[in-house]
Design brief:
Elements (H helix, E strand, L loop, with lengths): L1 H14 L6 E5 L5 H10 L4 E3 L10 H14 L4 H9 L7 H8 L11 H10 L10 H21 L4 H12 L1 H6 L4 H20 L5 H13 L16 E5 L8 E6 L15 E4 L3 E11 L10 E7 L1 H26 L2 E7 L5 H6 L12 H6 L3 H11 L19 H4 L19 H20 L1 H5 L3 E2 L18 E2 L25 H14 L8 H10 L4 H5 L3 H7 L3 H8 L4 E12 L6 E13 L4 E7 L6 H23 L4 E7 L6 E5 L1
Parallel strand pairs: 1-3, 1-4, 2-3, 4-8, 9-12, 13-14
Antiparallel strand pairs: 5-6, 6-7, 10-11, 11-12, 12-13, 14-15
């Protein structure tokens, strides 16, 4: 591929050939990823026939994935060095070598990140190698990475990725490269895919990186982003797609790629002429006296029909391949390049015979393993004739980076001063206004980021104590309404795996539907379960005996004995104040149930979480219950609120009081 790139750069730089006059044709797309990567390395714009899935192999996406890996875990040396060498920080090999020598005195082995920390603190053995410019550059790198890591803990992946784009101008940088529109589309798609990943209930940078690594390990890829192709770009397409098209310069790639002979290796070959061709399988006695040698061996022998069908299939296949090669070779208007690889000595040592009529012999044509064998056989067998093409061999010395060269930009952007621009004053005023808006937003950042409505599970720090506010309302301070007639709809859902969340939701709904006018029994619980809006698979997982045993507990008996004081599934809303912004916000939630007495309130909440010790759930939900208790206390003007957790996550029900 380097030889092709060298010739493309020669045509473009020296002869002024536009990229869209050049086409690269391949018999199959199996090596297209390597072709695209090589062209991208030399900034050669390319457009394909739309059949590639090489999104994760694009250079700009790989740089961002390595950046995310470093943010997740900076102890990954490969990702760390890749980020430092990227255009975002531009460390060169000399600077990286100096940093790699910054080992501390008391450690035998250190990773690269620890050496960076040593270099920053100037505590390494070879600290004299770190000049002031490198130290300044290193400080900026570590400060930036640390700020990204801190940001990732409190913000979404989408926000993190765009913060990286904007702070290091990476999105703008790739847009200025050849094929920049497609590169920017790839980066934009990365942010969108990260956002979609988190919306699918998979949260966190660690899980996203793990998902990407699993895709790469399986040698799969994500779908490439479709963008408008660049106007001036090299065409990369299959030979089949090139039918009917013509280009001034055509490169036929990978002519050394072996023909696919999978059909001729099948156990059965069919023919319209000869019928079914099979291999004869025979067991032959070995007559061996040694114990480790089997007494018989299995031999597969092609039958006469199989051999005839195999030859017929090979002839048909080779005829089609010749037609394919003819199509490829007739796409060029000015010059055709056939590109392959092989040992010059081995190729020149081969001899080929002709039939005396200007053709290769039948055996020579059928012995070929690839297009290159046919082309080389013609070149060798008819070397004395005017073939109108030449052969050129290039070695590794001819294909170094210096020998290949670089893409020359024809039109450089000129630095145009804005000193005489009549719009300068207006722009300054607009920038000043934007700056003032940003300062104002920064002052009130906490209030801007504060949601106006939150649920108890969204409030952080276990609901720290805040100022008392007026306006608490608990809806439904009356007896629950009688059950209304409901009609079950047909269940058209597919059978799926039952999750713990589904079982928990069904259990909560069941507890609200139980008729407590009389002592619950398994029969009444079964009737209530039938009304629950869940699949039969989920209902089968609900343990009715465990739920029934709850009503044998002291709290269960108290609930049954005080129906007139019982409230179930009651929504509430409460006004709270945020300490940082000093702004009010609304907390909304639903209480599982509570009993209201003259001097106290008994609050209870069902939990289906799995646990080892009750203390685990007590600590987990202490803040949530405190919030519920505060809402009830402020609504009913009753100070004493007893809080209970009804734990349904084990085989036996447990009722624990939360103080």
């Amino acid at each position: 591929m380097r030889m092709v790139i060298k010739e493309i750069l020669h045509l473009h730089n020296n002869k002024g050939v536009p990229f869209n006059d050049i086409a690269l044709l391949t018999a199959s797309r199996s090596r297209n990823d390597q072709v695209l990567l090589a062209l991208s390395e030399y900034s050669i714009p390319v457009k394909t026939d739309g059949a590639q899935s090489n999104y994760l192999q694009s250079l700009e996406v790989q740089v961002m994935l390595d950046t995310l890996r470093v943010i997740h875990n900076p102890l990954q040396d490969f990702a760390l060095v890749a980020l430092m060498k990227s255009p975002m920080f531009s460390f060169d090999e000399d600077e990286l070598a100096r940093l790699a020598l910054q080992k501390s005195e008391d450690k035998v082995q250190e990773n690269f990140y620890e050496k960076l920390v040593n270099a920053q603190a100037k505590t390494s053995l070879h600290k004299d190698l770190i000049k002031s410019e490198i130290h300044k550059k290193l400080n900026l790198f570590l400060e930036t990475v640390n700020s990204w890591r801190l940001f990732s803990k409190t913000h979404s992946l989408y926000d993190l990725i765009w913060k990286i784009y904007s702070e290091r101008f990476y999105y703008d940088y790739v847009g200025a490269l050849p094929n920049g529109q497609a590169r920017q589309a790839n980066l934009y798609a990365l942010a969108l895919r990260a956002d979609q990943f988190e919306k699918s209930n998979f949260k966190g940078l660690s899980r996203f990186i793990t998902m990407i690594d699993q895709v790469l390990e399986a040698k799969h890829d994500l779908a490439s982003v479709t963008v408008a192709p660049p106007k001036d770009a090299v065409e990369l397409m299959s030979i089949h797609k090139s039918k009917g098209l013509e280009f001034p310069y055509v490169f036929i790639l990978n002519i050394d790629q072996q023909f696919n002979k999978k059909d001729t290796k099948s156990e059965v070959i069919l023919s319209r002429k000869n019928g079914l061709g099979l291999k004869y399988v025979a067991r032959v006695a070995t007559n061996a006296k040694e114990e480790y040698v089997p007494s018989t061996i299995k031999l597969s022998i092609p039958s006469l029909t199989y051999t005839q069908n195999e030859e017929e299939l090979q002839l048909a296949s080779y005829s089609e391949l010749m037609r394919l090669l003819y199509v490829a070779m007739t796409r060029a208007e000015k010059k055709l390049y056939l590109v392959g690889k092989g040992s010059r000595e081995k190729l020149e040592s081969k001899e080929y015979s002709t039939n005396g009529k200007g053709l290769l012999t039948r055996e020579t044509r059928l012995d070929a393993q690839n297009f290159q064998d046919w082309i080389w056989a013609i070149y060798q067998a008819f070397s004395k004739e005017d073939l109108h093409f030449s052969v050129r061999f290039e070695s590794e010395e001819d294909l170094t980076k210096e020998a290949i060269g670089k893409l020359e930009t024809k039109s450089q952007l000129q630095d145009q001063s804005q000193a005489d621009n009549r719009q300068s004053d207006t722009i300054k005023e607009a920038l000043q206004m934007l700056k003032e808006v940003e300062v104002y937003n920064e002052i009130h950042r906490a209030a801007i980021n504060l949601p106006s409505v939150q649920t108890p599970s969204q409030i952080k720090k276990f609901y720290e104590s805040v100022m008392d506010m007026e306006g608490v309302v608990v809806a439904g301070q009356s007896k629950p309404k009688e059950n209304t007639i409901q009609f079950e709809l047909p269940d058209f859902s597919k059978t799926e795996k039952v999750t713990g969340a589904e079982i928990g939701s069904a259990t909560h709904e069941l507890m609200q539907r139980i008729n407590l006018d009389k002592e619950p029994t398994l029969e009444t619980l079964t009737e209530a379960l039938e009304q629950v809006q869940a699949t039969s698979a989920v209902k089968d997982k609900v343990n009715l005996e465990k739920i029934l045993s709850f009503f044998d507990t002291a709290l269960g008996q108290e609930i049954l004995a005080n129906q007139d004081k019982l409230y179930r599934e009651q929504p509430f809303s409460m006004l709270k104040r945020d300490d940082k912004s000093r702004e009010d916000f609304v907390v909304r939630g639903i209480l599982d149930g509570y009993l209201v007495y003259e001097d106290k309130i008994v609050l209870f909440d069902y939990k289906t979480d799995h646990y080892e010790y009750p203390s685990q759930l007590i600590e987990r939900y202490r803040g949530q219950l405190s919030l519920y208790a505060e809402a009830l206390s402020r609504s009913y003007q009753i100070d004493k609120v007893e809080k209970y957790l009804i734990l349904l996550g084990k085989d036996m029900v447990e009722v624990v009081e939360v103080n």
